């Protein structure tokens, strides 16, 4: 059933089950996202898609908030832009992101978002945590220095491949991606080496072994292709 | 009472350094030290990184010679992969290194040292820079800038960018050369040849008329070390045997695999500098001082292997001793120009090689050795990258021996020799700026790459402070 809402002053028609993000995307309105990836469920982790909804005294994540009839949404206000700048700066300050020598340089959603949001530096002190790199897998590597805990890889592994090798360990700033119960990736009995997690990663945290600077390109649309093929029996390329 | 004169910072070099000159009670120079005042830490923070990333990371050691680090790192990776690089990749790496030698040497000669050579050591410091050169010798300055730009363009056409291309990788290179880009490089060679010929005419003339500088700019016996080709000990810049020759022309080490460098190269540390002082182990420190770079490469090779450069090499050797060994560090300038000529001729040869366009440029490999050494000739001398990795390819240990470091002992001796020759009776009286500039110019002859990036923005004023033994500042001047 179709519903009508207003986004940035524009009347938008959307399906009853749509999220604000989906309704905005269908109407050609851009909302920045980082943990959202077409084909995966949404968890509202990154907070970049927060929007203002009239009548709500708090900001709501567009990716997990269902539309309502007559909803009035603002996606690009001064307040939101300011919050998003802080968010991206916090992400850069939290771990060790060095674009110049990163495998994903030029093909990184976090880097693109920082550029899009006009980030020139971080106002927060860098934390420089001491984090490792897991290269035990034959084909892929996991660099915790570059991970932003978006959990796209966890969802891709669980929802698309069905292996659920990857998951989250710990809380807050100490949260980490783990393989199985924290064993080296190369020893995982559940990993099928399908590479869907690598495809899903927005940064250089997951990469093909042997990748050098800016060499890690990926086709993130493959996951949505698989999901559509499986659920709707449509092979759309 | 002793007095200390400090030149801080030293200008028109790549990096940060200062010079201290110690005067005795008679105002004569008792000692002089060349301090490198910066600290980088690459060897430490590379630990824990994947091997594949090392070429890209270590290229960042230097903004002038990133290609040298890229190649040495990729070669260390080849060693750990235990693969043979495809012939085209080997030739393309050579082509890029030749582009780099051209651009770096052109920078050293035209941008950094020509102001001293053409405008004079005693000329107005405000004009004694590349802009002063442009004002007085616009045609030569333009040619010099274009020559450097040509070298940079070779790097860009191969690696996609002029600075820090992450193009050489363990196993080969990432992209082949296109026929269009080959023609672009080729089309610019004639002008580059013309420019280097003009510069060679100038430097030969200069050497004839400035005997005092040639005789006293770091003119002393040391060993000379570098790579020579595996076929006949010719001039080499990428892959060859290590050779060490003394000032009398005696060959101390020959056909030595540079991957075993640690058997003959030791590293000494002095408390007054962040730059280590490598030395030839069998002679100990500091007797085992050796020089690397253009002067060393021309002193150790049998020939260059190309007609124009070989003719020039013969002239160069006529300035040397009976065995043709040239010991004055001033002659680094001349050697640098001869190497540009050699680089251009070798480029021409490589461009005519049908292999150069081959698309087969990268051998795939994995961790087959846990230790690897990559050695290449950087513009400033032999560069060693030595890595140890774990079984997954994570870096456990890194040792980098940078070309400039190997000239450290010689640079210190040069500073002292120049100061002793030109500075006399300087007590409370001011030391003429032009004399201090000669001390700096002695360092510039080595073209040291200390931090490895030029400071294109802002100014680096030369500050000279005259200290009395009791710590009293006698005189402060800056420009």
Determine Rg of chain B (CA atoms, Å): 22 Å
Instruction: Compute the average pLDDT of chain A.
Output: 96
Given the structure, what is the number of helices of chain B? 14
Number of helices of chain A: 6
Q: How many domain regions of chain A?
A: 2
Compute the number of strand runs of chain A.
10
Known CATH architecture of the domain at 84-219 and 328-364 in chain B? Orthogonal Bundle
- Specify which chain pair forms the largest interface: A-B, 17 and 19 residues
Which structural category do the helix and sheet elements of chain A fall into?
alpha+beta
- The spatial strand order of the largest sheet of chain B comes to 3-2-1-15-16
Report the oligomer: heterodimer
Largest sheet of chain B: 5 strands, antiparallel
Quote the distance from N terminus to C terminus of chain B. 28 Å
Report the structural category of chain B.
Answer: alpha+beta
Beta-strand residue percentage of chain B: 15-25%
Structural account:
The complex is a heterodimer of chains A (237) and B (479). Chain A is of the alpha+beta class and 237 residues long. Chain A folds into two domains: 2-76, Roll (Ubiquitin-like (UB roll)), CATH 3.10.20.740; 83-232, Alpha-Beta Plaits. Helix content of chain A is 24%, strand content 16%. Chain A contains six helices and ten strands; from the N terminus they run ββαβββααββαββαβα. Chain A has helices at residues 20-26, 78-94, 109-116, 152-161, 196-200, 222-232; strands at 2-7, 10-15, 50-53, 60-61, 72-74, 133-134, 140-143, 166-169, 176-179, 206-208. In chain A, a hairpin with a 2-residue loop joins strand 1 and strand 2 (10-15). The longest helix of chain A has 17 residues, at 78-94. The radius of gyration of chain A is 19 Å and the shape is globular. Chain B has 479 residues and is α+β, with helices and mostly antiparallel strands. Among the domains of chain B are: 3-38 and 412-478, no CATH class; 84-219 and 328-364, Cytochrome-c3 Hydrogenase, chain B, CATH 1.10.645. Helix content of chain B is 41%, strand content 18%. Chain B has 14 helices and 16 strands. Chain B has helices spanning 42-45, 54-58, 66-81, 87-119, 130-136, 138-159, 179-209, 211-216, 294-300, 307-318, 332-352, 403-406, 408-422, 433-444, and strands spanning 3-8, 17-23, 29-36, 168-169, 172-173, 223-228, 241-245, 251-256, 265-268, 277-280, 290-291, 371-378, 381-389, 395-401, 463-468, 473-478. In chain B, strands 3-2-1-15-16 form a five-stranded antiparallel beta sheet, covered by helices on one side. Chain B has a four-stranded mixed beta sheet with strand order 8-7-6-11. In chain B, strands 12-13-14 form a three-stranded antiparallel beta sheet. In chain B, a hairpin with an 8-residue loop joins strand 1 (3-8) and strand 2. Chain B is globular, with a radius of gyration of 22 Å. The two termini of chain B are 28 Å apart. In chain B, 52% of the residues are buried. Residues 451-464 of chain B have low confidence and may be disordered. Chain A binds chain B through residues 100-101, 103, 132-133, 135-136, 141, 143, 186, 209-215, and chain B through 48-50, 52-53, 55-57, 60, 164, 166, 169-170, 174, 364, 366, 392-394.
């Amino acid at each position: 059933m179709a519903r009508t809402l207003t986004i940035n002053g524009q009347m938008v028609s959307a399906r009853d089950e749509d999220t604000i993000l989906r309704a905005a995307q269908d109407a050609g309105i851009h909302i920045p996202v980082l943990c959202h990836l077409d084909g995966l469920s949404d968890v509202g982790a990154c907070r970049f898609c927060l929007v203002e909804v009239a009548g709500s005294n708090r900001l709501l994540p567009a990716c997990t908030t269902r539309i309502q009839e007559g909803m009035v949404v603002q996606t690009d206000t001064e307040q939101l832009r300011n919050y998003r700048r802080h968010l991206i700066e916090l992400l850069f300050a939290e771990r060790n992101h060095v674009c110049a020598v990163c495998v994903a340089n030029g093909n990184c959603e976090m880097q693109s978002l920082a550029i899009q949001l006009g980030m020139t530096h971080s106002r927060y002190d860098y934390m420089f945590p001491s984090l490792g790199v897991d290269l035990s897998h034959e084909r892929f590597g996991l660099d915790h220095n570059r991970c932003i805990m978006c959990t796209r890889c966890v969802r891709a592994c669980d929802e698309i491949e069905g292996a659920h090798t990857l998951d989250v360990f710990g809380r807050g700033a100490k949260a980490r991606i783990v393989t199985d119960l924290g064993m080296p990736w190369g020893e995982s009995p559940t990993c099928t080496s399908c590479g869907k997690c690598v495809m899903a990663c927005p940064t250089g945290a997951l990469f093909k072994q042997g990748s050098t600077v800016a060499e890690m390109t990926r086709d993130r649309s493959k996951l949505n292709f698989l999901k559509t093929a499986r659920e709707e029996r449509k092979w759309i390329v | 009472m002793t007095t200390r004169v400090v030149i801080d910072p030293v200008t028109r070099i790549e990096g940060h350094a200062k010079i201290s000159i110690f005067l005795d009670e008679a105002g004569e120079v008792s000692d002089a030290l060349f301090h490198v005042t910066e600290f980088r830490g690459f060897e430490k923070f590379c630990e824990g990184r994947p091997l594949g990333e090392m070429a890209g990371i270590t290229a960042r050691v230097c903004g002038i010679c990133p290609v040298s680090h890229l190649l040495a790192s990729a070669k260390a990776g080849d060693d750990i992969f235990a693969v043979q690089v495809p012939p085209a990749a080997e030739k393309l790496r050579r082509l890029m290194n030749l582009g780099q030698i051209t651009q770096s040497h052109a920078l050293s000669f035209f941008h950094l040292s020509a102001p001293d050579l053409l405008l004079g050591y005693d000329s107005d410091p405000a004009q004694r820079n590349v802009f002063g050169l442009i004002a007085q010798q616009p045609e030569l300055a333009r040619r010099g800038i274009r020559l450097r730009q040509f070298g940079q363009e070779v790097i860009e056409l191969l690696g996609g960018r002029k600075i820090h291309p992450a193009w050489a990788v363990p196993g080969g290179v990432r992209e082949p050369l296109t026929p269009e880009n080959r023609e672009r490089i080729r089309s610019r060679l004639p002008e580059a040849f013309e420019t280097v010929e003009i510069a060679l005419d100038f430097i030969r003339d200069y050497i004839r008329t400035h005997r005092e500088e040639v005789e006293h700019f770091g003119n002393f016996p040391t060993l000379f070390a570098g790579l020579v080709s595996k076929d006949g000990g010719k001039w080499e810049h990428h892959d060859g045997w290590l050779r060490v020759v003394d000032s009398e022309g005696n060959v101390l080490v020959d056909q030595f695999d540079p991957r075993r460098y640690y058997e003959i190269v030791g590293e000494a540390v002095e408390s007054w500098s962040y730059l280590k002082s490598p030395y030839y182990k069998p002679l100990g420190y500091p007797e085992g001082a050796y020089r690397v770079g253009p002067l060393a490469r021309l002193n150790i090779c049998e020939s260059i292997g190309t007609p124009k450069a070989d003719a020039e090499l013969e002239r160069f050797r006529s300035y040397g001793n009976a065995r043709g060994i040239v010991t004055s560090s001033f002659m680094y300038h001349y050697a640098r120009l001869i190497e540009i000529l050699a680089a251009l001729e070798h480029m021409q040869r490589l461009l005519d090689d049908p292999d150069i366009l081959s698309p087969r440029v990268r051998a795939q490999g994995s961790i087959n050795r846990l230790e690897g050494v990559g050695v290449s000739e950087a513009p400033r001398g032999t560069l060693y990258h030595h890595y140890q990795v774990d079984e997954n390819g994570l870096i456990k240990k890194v040792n980098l021996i940078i070309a400039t470091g190997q000239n450290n002992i010689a640079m210190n001796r040069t500073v002292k020799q120049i100061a002793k020759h030109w500075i006399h009776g300087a007590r409370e009286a001011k030391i003429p700026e032009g004399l201090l500039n000669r001390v700096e110019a002695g360092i510039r002859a080595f073209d040291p790459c200390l931090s490895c990036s030029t400071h294109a923005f802002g100014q680096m004023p030369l500050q000279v402070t005259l200290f009395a033994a009791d710590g009293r500042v006698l005189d402060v001047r800056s420009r």
